[in-house]
TrEMBL record:
Annotated protein name in UniProt: Methylmalonyl-CoA mutase, C-terminal domain
Keyword Repeat attributed: no
Source organism: Symbiobacterium thermophilum (strain DSM 24528 / JCM 14929 / IAM 14863 / T)
A single GO molecular function term of this UniProt record: metal ion binding
Keyword list, A-Z: Cobalamin, Cobalt, Isomerase, Metal-binding
Cofactor or coenzyme needed: adenosylcob(III)alamin
Cross-referenced Pfam families: B12-binding
Domain B12-binding: 3-131
Length: 131
């Protein structure tokens, strides 16, 4: 069975990446292959990295408040490259009232502060591995 490949990315001008690095390590410790793009990525850069790295999951970390703009644009950029089956997750400071619209835009799940990292790991496993 192929190892699950996860791209962890920080869209926009947000300069805080501690959470992204913690999640990346949790994914690695869970046995996933992890690629971290670093700070200040555009949706197009993230989508291109996902295409080049042939990932199964794109995990977006955002704290800047630009989630309603950047996350749907990232999903659109992924889909424009034919990455229709890539699971897209988001984490960060995202108000509960914004989550339904993000899910409607293609974000499979949104993890907010205080969520244990194992919840994201289990979500990925449930979605990508047959029972």
């Amino acid at each position: 069975m192929r190892t699950i490949r996860v791209l962890v990315a920080k869209p926009g001008l947000d300069g805080h990446d501690r959470g992204a690095k913690v999640v990346a390590r949790a994914f690695r410790d869970a046995g996933f292959e992890v690629i971290y793009t670093g700070l200040r990525q555009t949706p197009e850069q993230i989508a291109e990295a996902a295409l080049q790295e042939d990932v199964d999951v794109v995990a977006l970390s955002i704290l800047s408040g630009a989630h309603n703009t950047l996350l749907p644009r990232t999903v659109a950029a992924l889909r424009a490259r034919g990455l229709d089956d890539v699971l897209v997750l988001a984490g960060g400071v995202i108000p509960a009232e914004d989550i339904p619209a993000l899910k409607a835009a293609g974000i499979a799940e949104v993890f907010t502060p205080g969520t244990p990292t194992r919840a994201a790991v289990e979500f990925i496993r449930q979605r990508l591995q047959p029972a």
